[in-house]
Design brief:
Elements: H1 5-22, H2 24-55, H3 66-69, H4 73-113, H5 122-153, H6 155-178, H7 180-188, H8 190-215, H9 221-250, H10 252-259, H11 282-297, E1 306-310, E2 317-323, E3 329-335, H12 340-350, E4 361-368, E5 371-378, H13 388-399, H14 406-413, H15 419-422, H16 425-428, H17 438-448, H18 450-459, E6 462-465, E7 474-476, E8 483-485, E9 492-495, H19 504-517, H20 529-546, H21 550-553, H22 557-566
Antiparallel strand pairs: 1-2, 2-3, 3-5, 4-5, 6-9, 7-8
Helix pairs in contact: 1-2, 2-4, 2-5, 4-5, 5-6, 5-9, 6-7, 6-8, 8-9, 17-22, 19-20, 20-22
C-alpha cells in the first residue's frame, strides 16, 4: 500500500465512505467508542501517576492544576483513584460496544450487498475488516486530536512530531521508489519497522523535553507529562494504523466483493504478492535459480544448463528439475507461505537422514523472495514408477528396517503426538452416529479396551511414515539409488505398520516385509505381526474418522477387535 500510496488512499477513502453511507449509525458508534476507549485507557494509566505523586508528598504540589488546591489531599487521592477505575470501566464498556457494533455493521453491510456466499468464513472476515478499519479511523482521529491539543499545551513537541513523521514517511517512500529490494523488505517487515520508528519518535520527544527543562523555559511540568504520554500514544497509534490499512488493502479483492454491490469475487486475484507461480515462469527462474545453485553447491551454473518444471503433488510446493550436460542434476523446491512448517520439517530429516532413507541427497536450504527453498541432488537418470501402489509399498518396505535416531525420536516426541496418544474416546465418539447392530457392539468393546489398545501401539517399534507417496513425488532411478521420494514435508514417526494399506494382499506384504526387516533391525525381532497389523488398521481408522467418512471407518472395527484378541495382554500404563 505504501508503494501505491495514491491508489491506497483512494481505496481506503472509498471503503470508509461506503461504511458511513451504508451503516452510518453502527460506523459512527464504533469509531466513537474506539476513540473513547483509547482516551479512557490513557486516563486510566495517567491518573494513577498523579495518585502516586500525591502519596509521596505532604500536600498538593504547586504544579498541579489550581482547582486541585481547593480539595483536601486525602480526598483528592480517593477521587483520582475512583476516576482511574471509572475510566478503565469506561474502556471495557467501549470495547464491548466496538465488538457489538462491528458485528452489527458488518452484518448490515453484507445484507445490503445482496450476494451469495462468496467464501468460507466471510462473516468473520467482514466483521474483522470492519473493526480494523474503524479502529484505524479512530486512531487517525486520535492522532489529529493529540496534535491539536499539543499545539495548545506544548507547541514545540507537536512540531517535532509533525516534522519527524513527515521525514520518516518521505524517507520510506523514497527508499521504495529507488530500490525494489528495499520495497520487498519493507512490505514483509512493515509492522516491526514502524513500531521501531514510532519508539524512536517517542524517545526524540523525551530527549527534547529533558533538554527543554535543562536549558530552556518549558511551559510547565503537567503539560510536559501530558505531552510525554500523548506523544507515546500518538506514535503507537501511527505505527499500528499504517500496517492495519496496508493489510486491508492487501485484502481489497475480497473486501470489494463483500461490501460493494457491483464487484464480483475473483479467487485468482488473492494473495498476488505471495504467489509462488510467477517465480517459476521461464524468464523469472533464469534470474534466481543459477544464483541459488551456485551459492549452495559452490560451483558455477553452466550457460548450457537446463531448468525445467517438475510437478509435485504437495500443495503449494513447486519444483524445478535442473540439469547440466555432464554434471550433476538438482531438484530446486520452493515452499509457499502456508508450507513453511513443511519446509522446516523436511529439512530436519533430510539434512541428517538415516542410512538407507529413500530420498534424494540433501544439498542445502536458503530463501528466495521470502520463500523457503530446498535444493536436493537427483540421480542423473530416473523416471516415474509404473504401478503407483506397488511403488508406494516398496517405499514403505524400505522404511521399515530404518531405526530412527534416539535424539530424533526425542525431538519429535516434544513436538508431535504419536498414534497412540491421538487415539482416545473423543476420537471414537462421533462414530456412534453411524453404528448399529454388530458395528455398535464392536465399537463399545474397542472403547472399553482403549488402555490396552493404546499400550500395544506404544510398545510397537517406531518407523518412518511418508503420506505423500503419489506418482508425482516418486522417482525410479537405476541402482544403486533405486526408488526415492521427492517430498518429505509431512513425514512422521508412527508405530511400525501405520500407513500401510489394509486389504488382504497389502497385509500379507506387510508380514513379508517384517520378516525381511528383522534381519536388519534388531528392535523388530520382538515385534509380532499382529502389532504391525494393529498399527495399520488403527491408522486407517483414524484417517477415515478425520475425514468424516464414518461408513468407511466402520470397516476396520471388527479386524481391530479380532487383532487385539490375538495379542497377549499389554501393560496399559501410557508414558
Amino acid at each position: 500500500m505504501l508503494y501505491g500510496l495514491k491508489d491506497g488512499i483512494r481505496w481506503s477513502a472509498r471503503l470508509g465512505a461506503k461504511f458511513f453511507w451504508a451503516v452510518p449509525g453502527a460506523t459512527s458508534a464504533v469509531v466513537l467508542a474506539t476513540l473513547v476507549g483509547q482516551v479512557s485507557m490513557l486516563l486510566a494509566f495517567f491518573l494513577p501517576l498523579k495518585v502516586i505523586i500525591l502519596l509521596g508528598s505532604e500536600g498538593i504540589p504547586r504544579y498541579f492544576p489550581p482547582a486541585f488546591a481547593a480539595v483536601e489531599r486525602d480526598a483528592l487521592i480517593v477521587w483520582l483513584s475512583l476516576a482511574a477505575v471509572g475510566f478503565y470501566g469506561l474502556y471495557l464498556v467501549a470495547d464491548r460496544i466496538i465488538a457489538l457494533g462491528s458485528e452489527r455493521g458488518a452484518s448490515q453491510l453484507l445484507a445490503r450487498s445482496r450476494k451469495m456466499v462468496l467464501f468460507e468464513g466471510q462473516d468473520e472476515v467482514a466483521s474483522s475488516a470492519y473493526k480494523r478499519y474503524a479502529n484505524a479511523l479512530a486512531g487517525g482521529l486520535f492522532v489529529f486530536l493529540v496534535i491539536v491539543l499539543l499545539l495548545w499545551l506544548y507547541p514545540a513537541v507537536a512540531g517535532l512530531m509533525l516534522v519527524y513523521s513527515a521525514g520518516v514517511a518521505a524517507a520510506l517512500l523514497l527508499g521504495q521508489a529507488l530500490s525494489a529490494r528495499f520495497r520487498e523488505w519493507l512490505e514483509e517487515q512493515l509492522g516491526v519497522t514502524l513500531s521501531v520508528l514510532g519508539a524512536v519518535g517517542f524517545m526524540l520527544s523525551f530527549v527534547y523535553l529533558v533538554v527543554d527543562f535543562l536549558y530552556r523555559a518549558p511551559p510547565g511540568l503537567i503539560p510536559a507529562i501530558i505531552a510525554l504520554l500523548l506523544s507515546r500514544q500518538a506514535f503507537t497509534r501511527l505505527s499500528t494504523l499504517v500496517p492495519a490499512l496496508s493489510r486491508l488493502y492487501d485484502e481489497r479483492a475480497r473486501l470489494d466483493a463483500l461490501f460493494f454491490h457491483r464487484r464480483a469475487f475473483s479467487p485468482s486475484g488473492q494473495d498476488a504478492k505471495k504467489a509462488l507461480a510467477p517465480l517459476f515462469l521461464p524468464e523469472r527462474r533464469e534470474e534466481w535459480v543459477p544464483s541459488v545453485l551456485e551459492a549452495l553447491t559452490g560451483e558455477p551454473w553452466p550457460a548450457d544448463g537446463t531448468i525445467r518444471w517438475r510437478q509435485l503433488a504437495a500443495g503449494e510446493v513447486f519444483a524445478l528439475d535442473c540439469r547440466t550436460p555432464e554434471g550433476p542434476r538438482y531438484l530446486v523446491k520452493l515452499f509457499g507461505a502456508r508450507h513453511t512448517g513443511q519446509a522446516r520439517h523436511e529439512a530436519t530429516l533430510l539434512a541428517d537422514p538415516p542410512a538407507g532413507l529413500p530420498a534424494p541427497e540433501w544439498v542445502g536450504a536458503t530463501e528466495v523472495r521470502g520463500f523457503q527453498c530446498h535444493v536436493l541432488r537427483l540421480p542423473a537418470e530416473g523416471k516415474g514408477p509404473g504401478q503407483t501402489d506397488d511403488a508406494a509399498d516398496r517405499v514403505r518396505e524400505a522404511l521399515l528396517p530404518l531405526q530412527p535416531d534416539k535424539a530424533l525420536v526425542q525431538r519429535y516426541a516434544r513436538s508431535r503426538a504419536f498414534l497412540w496418544q491421538r487415539l482416545d474416546d473423543a476420537l471414537l465418539e462421533p462414530l456412534r452416529a453411524a453404528t448399529g447392530g454388530a458395528t455398535e457392539q464392536h465399537l463399545e468393546v474397542l472403547r472399553a479396551s482403549l488402555p490396552e489398545w493404546r499400550a500395544h501401539l506404544r510398545d510397537t517399534p517406531l518407523a518412518f511414515l511418508n503420506p505423500d507417496l503419489n506418482p508425482e513425488n516418486l522417482l525410479e532411478a537405476p541402482a544403486p539409488e533405486g526408488l526415492m521420494v521427492l517430498h518429505w514435508g509431512r513425514w512422521s514417526l508412527e508405530p511400525a505398520g501405520a500407513g500401510w494399506r489394509t486389504n488382504p494382499k497389502a497385509i500379507e506384504a506387510l508380514r513379508e516385509a517384517l520378516a525381511g526387516a528383522r534381519d536388519q533391525r534388531p528392535s523388530l525381532t520382538e515385534a509380532s505381526e499382529q502389532q504391525l497389523v494393529l498399527s495399520a488398521l488403527t491408522a486407517q481408522l483414524e484417517k477415515e474418522l478425520n475425514g468424516q467418512r464414518f461408513s468407511k471407518a466402520l470397516k476396520p472395527l471388527k479386524p481391530i477387535r479380532n487383532t487385539l484378541a490375538r495379542l497377549a495382554p499389554a501393560d496399559p500404563e501410557i508414558t
